[in-house]
Amino acid sequence: MGAGNGTAVTEFVLLGFSGFGSLRGPLFWGVLCIYLVTLLGNSLIILLTLADPALNSPMYFFLRHFSMVEILYTTTTVPRMLADLLASCPTISPASCFTRLYFFALFGIAECCLLTAMAYDRYAAICRPLRYTTLMNQGACVSMVGASYLMGIITGTTHSIFIFTLPFCGANTIHHFLCDILPVLRLASASTFRGEVGNLALAIAFILTPFLLIIASYGCILATILGIATSQGRRKVFSTCSSHLFVVMLFFGTGTVAYMRPWAGSSQDMDQILAFIYTVVTPMFNPFVYTLRNKEVTGAMRRLVKRYIWSP
Question: Which residues form a coiled coil (predicted)?
Answer without folding.
Answer: none
